[in-house]
Specification:
The complex is a heterodimer of chains A (about 210) and B (about 10).
Chain A (H helix, E strand, L loop, with lengths): L2 H24 L7 H14 L10 H24 L14 H13 L6 H15 L2 H10 L1 E2 L1 H26 L6 H23 L7 E2 L3
Antiparallel strand pairs in A: 1-2
Helix pairs in contact in A: 1-3, 1-7, 2-3, 2-5, 4-5, 5-8, 7-8
Chain B lengths: L10
Classes of the chains: A mainly alpha (about 210), B little secondary structure (about 10).
């Protein structure tokens, strides 16, 4: 565990908390992609099955349980409790175009052909693109509420901090996982355009609005 | 497998 990794995890946790608080306080999930949230729930479920088989640390176990619980909590708020506010007309990204290639790639490129390893690899590939329905929704409506922007910024920061964590670990000559790194870099690149808009607009008090 | 890195990341 190094400082980048810890800040990355905390940033990830912060993103999830921002999202839950936004939905809870405004009693609305307008502007949030239920499809991305659904994909994140699949990601955590597929990846954290190792909770049943391996113990890494108390920190690791607690965080996994928190991520699982909050992802299902978010789905509950979006699809049950505040379903009436869910903006499904703008949430139209075809997620089978992400899930099926992630399954295929996990079957082809993995480190070990076992069920648990393939599920882990699938979760890594799927996570790298799971935010696309959300970014697609923002581009479709042409804008995002500030709170949604903060959520996306925290989520993107988590990925960027994980890259710093790998660079740090590389200097310590630790063993690194190539699959996680390549997918992580792809995932971070997806946020670059958003980062630019966030830094140039949202932080200056303007609404995130895409150029027409 | 000992050659694989431990999956300690979230």
């Amino acid at each position: 565990m190094n400082i980048f990794r810890l800040l990355g995890d905390l940033s990830h946790l912060l993103a999830i908390i921002i999202l839950l608080l936004k939905i809870w306080n405004s009693r609305s999930c307008a502007g949030i992609s239920g499809r991305s949230q659904f994909l994140f729930a699949i990601v955590f479920t597929a990846r954290y099955l190792d909770l049943f088989f391996t113990f890494i640390s108390l920190y690791n176990t607690v965080m996994k349980i928190v991520f699982l619980a909050t992802s299902y909590g978010t789905l509950y708020l979006m699809y049950i409790k505040f379903k009436a506010t869910y903006d499904s007309n703008h949430d139209t990204f075809r997620i089978e175009f992400l899930i099926l290639p992630a399954i295929a790639l996990a079957l082809l490129i993995n480190e070990e052909f076992t069920v648990i390893e393939i599920l882990w690899t699938f979760s890594i590939y799927l996570e790298s693109v799971a935010i696309l329905p959300q970014l697609f929704m923002v581009s479709k409506t042409g804008e995002a509420e500030s709170i949604t922007s903060h959520y996306l910024f925290a989520l993107g920061s988590y990925r960027a901090l994980y890259i710093l964590n790998w660079i740090y670990r590389w200097f310590l000559t630790e063993k690194l996982n190539a699959i996680a790194i390549v997918a992580g870099i792809v995932q971070t690149i997806l946020y670059c355009d958003f980062f630019y808009l966030y830094l140039t607009k949202v932080l200056k008090g303007k609404k995130l609005q895409l150029p027409a | 497998d000992d050659d694989l890195p431990k999956k300690d990341e979230l």
